[in-house]
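User: My instructor asked us to take a sequence, write out its structure as tokens, and then describe one feature of it. I'm not sure where to start. Here is the sequence I was given:
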Amino acid sequence: MSRLTTVLVLLAGALAGGLAVSVATRPSVDEARVRSIAEEVAAKSAPAGGLTQTAVETIVADLIARQPRQDLPPSAAGVDAATINPMIEDYLLGNPKILQRVSAALDAELKSERTAENKVALTELQPVLYEAENQIVLGNPEGDVTLVELFDYNCGYCRQSLPDIAALLDEDKNLRIILKEFPILSQASIDAARIAVQVADTDVDYWEFHHALFTGRGQVDKAAALKAASDLGLNPITLELGMKSPRVDEVLQQSYRIADRLGISGTPTFIIGDEIIPGAIGIDGLRERITNMRACGASSCPAPGQPG
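Assistant: Let's start with the prediction itself. The structure tokens for your sequence are:
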């Protein structure tokens, strides 16, 4: 019996329950064969909202690896690919919700794994996240809840989140907000961030500078950042000369290292407790998480009557 037929029998048996098949030994996975099968199954199931090719590859490979060591039943040994292929196709097309359930289960498992990995990473990153030298802190420096935001001055969703941050600062006098420059959208963003890092090291009101850049018109670049800093009384020549200083390089590299460790690739990204929140979730979403942090020490509290 060929490896291709064996894999197809295993898949059909696992999904349809109609072919209880196992192999005498655990064969090594032929990647080309698995990919070919995955492409066929994924293509057939795509119109029904089924699995991606990668997900099907994973399932096929896992099925092979999990087969117990026992003799192959004669009834299954006589089934060839020409017979089993239509069976698999008919079953998957006739029961597309199975693929949806498998996909949902796979997503849930991967999400759980990512959450566990992020908790470990966030614990290791606490010093650079919350105690970095001369970091930008808004609100109450001794607040009982800390919200971290990684942002880019040319990010439209970061601009959209600005009123939410302002409202939270105004209404919650026990909240600490840490801003971390994370310029990823353009060279203009990087240049503006290099000016901003220096502004944060001065005695001027950083929030006023921050607000000016996000509420101005057009692209935020070096010229816009120098103008906003100059309006606060800072020397634009000094700031421009300091753009490539080791201090500025280190602040930006620190943000990039945090993002790399946590798998962050977009802005804005918020961090609160053990949760990494991608995107602008709105003030209600942020308020809920802040309230939960105070109530149960986590961004999501268990429902009444449920175990913590």
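For the description part of your assignment, you could build on this observation: The beta strands are 136-139, 145-151, 175-181, 269-272, 275-278. Try explaining in your own words what that tells you about the chain.
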